[in-house]
Specification:
- The chain is α+β, with helices and mostly antiparallel strands.
- The chain has a single domain, classed as 3-Layer(aba) Sandwich (Aminopeptidase), CATH 3.40.630.30.
- An eight-stranded mixed sheet has the order 1-2-3-4-5-6-8-7, with helices on both faces.
- α4 crosses α5 and α4 runs antiparallel to α6.
Length: about 200
Amino acid sequence: MGSPIWPVTLTCDDLVLRPIRYRDRKEWTEVRSRNRDWLAPWEASNPMPGGGLPSYRQMVRSLNIQAAQGTALPFVITEWTPGVREPVIIGQLTVSSIVWGSAMMATLGYWVDKSHAGRGIAPTAVAMATDHCFRTLGLHRMEINIKPDNGPSLRVVEKLGFRDEGYRPRFLHINGEWADHRSFALTSEEVPEGILNRWLRSRPH
C-alpha cells in the first residue's frame, strides 16, 4: 500500500522536484561523481565499525520505504533545459524524520550541482518543499541543520528567513567524523503567505 502523501511532483517555472527513481541511477551517479570534491565536506557518513554508504539501489529502496510510511519525501531537483526530453537532475532534496501527531514537524536536507550554484536553485527548492509541507501536508515546523563552515547552505537559510536556534555539538556524522551543526527552523505561522512567494519577491532579478 502506498502513502497518502507520496508520490508528489512540485514545479516552479523550469524547476521540478520529483520522486527519485531506480532508473535515475546513471544520471544521478554522473552528477554525484562530477561533484565529489564539492560535496565531500558535507557528506553524511556511517559511524558504525566498517560501515559504508549504501549503494544507489539501497538508498532509493530505503527512501521509498520511508515515503510509503509517511516519514520522508525523497525528491530529486531537476530543471528543464533546451533540447532535452525531460528535466535533468541538478540536485537532491529530502524531507525526512517527518513526525505527525502533536509535533507535525520534519527535517530537510539538500545538495545542488556546483555548476548550478549561485542561481537561487537551492533556496527555491527548499521553499517549494517547505510550502508543500506546511500548506498541503499541514506540518507546523521545518528544521535544517548545517555545519557552521558550510557557507552556501548558511546563505540559503538566511535568504529564506529560517531562525538560528543554536549550536548542536557533534550532532551528525559527516565526512568521517562527528560534526557540530547549527540548527535553523521555521514554523508555518511565520510564513502565512508562503515562503516561496516571499523568496521570489525578494530575490534580485
